[in-house]
Amino acid sequence: MTTTINQTTSPRIPNPETQPLPPVLTPNEENLVRRNRKYAKCFDDGDLSHLPAKKYAIVTCMDCRIDPAAAFGITLGDAHVIRNAGGSARDALRSIVISQQLLGTTEVFVIKHTHCGMQGITNEAINQTVLKNLGEAALMELGGLDWLPFQDLEQGVRDDVAFLRGSRAVARGVNVSGWVYDVETGKVKAVKK
Fold first, then answer.
1. What percentage of the chain reaches a pLDDT higher than 70?
2. Which residues pair with 128 in a beta bridge?
């Protein structure tokens, strides 16, 4: 049985073009709203599946110099992009399991990048910064969190790939590969075992 919506009795969706902005927005919030209005005006991909068409996930850093869609050739609907500080596979494990077990991905690309803020730093240095800026209560709330820094870029990629390949929470037969993105050239290169 097909359900139809009665246009005369269904709630109206406000037209984003005519809706005023909330009274007080930060400049970044205002930019978000204005750019979204422009984006939504031309948006015609509302029928995409929630399942990634190309069945892969990328784990990469949250660094603002990386545009995963442009840099890695991802079209909307193709893949999951999981971002966190340092592009850590350990930090991304929860999302990787959901991506594979509920949404059907069968491949993972771990992509770290040059000049990453998580390279060369230590847990102790990050904890001291939190203590200085936010106080002891904040540090205690974080409960000895491992910030997952790494010292060597390519070894960090290898370690994350090995972690995923060795994890019982990652399905057998899933292809896991490691890459480095150069923020100065925009190029990626594969990291060998």
1. 89
2. none
